[in-house]
Design goal:
Layout lengths: L1 H6 L1 E3 H8 L3 H12 L5 E3 L2 E3 L10 H6 L2 H12 L7 E4 L3 H9 L5 E5 L2 H7 L5 E5 L3 E3 L4 E3 L1 H7 L4 E7 L2 E3 L2 E4 L2 H12 L1 E7 L11 E4 L6 E4 L5 H9 L3 E4 L6
Helix pairs in contact: 2-3, 5-6, 6-7
């Protein structure tokens, strides 16, 4: 339970490795734990309940775990070189990257109205706002016109926020947002995912990609053993921000 409280999910293989028990013993213990109300049994392990829903609005998410998100955003912004072309999605963590951006002569394409507003105050940034229908609660633009305009661009880097990261890939609560994010991935040479540790182990309604769609993951805490293993197999570079190592 201590491991689950920190990492949200655990597999049978990890239980065997951490506690030096056989797979049969681990399976029996998983069954016993799943009979309580504390955990949910999954295919091959356990997870904490209540991980599959995203209920917070954009403004509330902006202030949750804000210190970690700020450091993640600063680290991401430092990866941008002068003259680069970027796509920024509508994510609270990516918003911190927009605030921290100091590179000169940068061109940004975004469907995030808050990021566009922040970047409009920076003299050395040219902003292209994707059109479309506005999701007022979560502050992103989406729809056919968004995808049509996005198809005209190709960029050096995509900064992508994440709502859920598991061994199976990246997932989001809203399909209309996920469709746009999937298209963004196709139009970027490098995909940089910005996600604090609370996104680890979450599996949400709409999966947009496998882990191998990512090039870099910037986070504030080291992933669990099984997630790190999956990231390594997918060739994803994991950057843990200063002060975030456990």
């Amino acid at each position: 339970m201590s491991y689950l409280n920190q990492h949200q999910r655990v597999t049978l293989q990890t239980i065997c490795e951490l506690y030096d028990v056989s797979r049969d013993t681990a399976r029996r213990d998983v069954v016993k734990l799943a009979q309580t109300t504390q955990v949910v049994r999954t295919r091959g392990g356990l997870m904490l309940p209540g991980l599959s829903k995203e209920v917070y609005g954009y403004k509330e998410r902006l202030h949750r775990e804000s210190s970690g998100k700020l450091e993640i955003g600063r680290t991401a912004a430092a990866l941008v070189s002068d003259g680069e072309f970027l796509i920024l999605d509508a994510s609270t963590t990516v918003q911190f990257a927009a605030e921290s951006l100091t590179a000169r002569n940068v061109t940004v394409v975004t469907n995030a109205i808050d990021a566009a507003s922040i970047l409009s105050e920076k003299e050395n940034v040219t902003v292209h706002v994707l059109g479309g229908k506005l999701n007022q609660q979560h502050r992103f633009l989406y729809g056919a016109s968004t995808l049509e305009k996005l198809a005209e661009y190709h960029v050096d880097k995509l900064f992508l926020g994440a709502c859920g990261i598991t061994e199976d890939g990246l997932s989001y609560p809203h399909e209309e947002d996920g469709v746009v994010k999937r298209a963004m991935i196709r139009h970027a040479d490098q995909v940089v995912v910005l996600a604090d540790h609370t996104k680890f182990g979450k599996r949400l309604f709409h999966k947009i990609s496998d882990l191998d769609a990512m090039d870099i993951l910037i986070t504030d805490r080291e992933p669990s053993v099984e997630l790190q293993r999956a990231l390594d197999e997918a060739g994803v570079e994991v950057m843990v921000v200063e002060g975030g190592r456990s």
